[in-house]
Q: What sequence folds into this?
């Protein structure tokens, strides 16, 4: 004969599975975009406003100009749950999935739930062109 389980045991077991799944879903997910290959065009200086930037979804990169003449590149993949960041402005990079914000100066978290900074990618400026390194 097979094992028999009480209704209570089945309900308690199912509740434990649901609770475990819920806790796991709330955890940090450290998915990021890979750095673009060296030489990949990342736009032009003239297209990146001071205090703002551009999201290059196809490259997985956000290019910012936190202050006049200083350009930074970060992963466009939020470190919280792997959503794509949605906007850049007022010195911040924003992910609207769960409302995390990051500093465009160094990629650090300025508001959670993300706990990890956006990875920074190397770039070079050649004239008006910005390229991955």
A:
């Amino acid at each position: 004969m097979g094992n028999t389980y009480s209704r209570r045991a089945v309900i308690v077991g199912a509740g434990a599975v649901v609770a475990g799944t819920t806790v796991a879903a709330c955890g940090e997910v450290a998915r990021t975009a890979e750095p673009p290959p060296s030489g990949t065009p990342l736009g032009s200086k003239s297209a990146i406003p001071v205090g703002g930037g551009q999201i290059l979804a196809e490259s997985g990169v956000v290019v910012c100009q936190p202050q006049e003449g200083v350009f930074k590149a970060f992963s466009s993949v939020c470190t919280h749950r792997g959503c794509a960041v949605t906007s850049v402005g007022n010195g911040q990079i924003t992910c609207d999935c769960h409302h995390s914000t990051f500093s465009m100066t160094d990629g650090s978290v300025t508001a959670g739930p993300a706990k990890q900074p956006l990875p920074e990618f190397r770039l070079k400026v050649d004239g008006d062109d910005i390229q991955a390194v």
User: Anything to note?
Assistant: The first strand starts at residue 41 and ends at 44. Confidence is low (pLDDT under 50) at residues 18-30. The domain at 41-132 is CATH 2.102.10.10 (Rieske Iron-sulfur Protein).
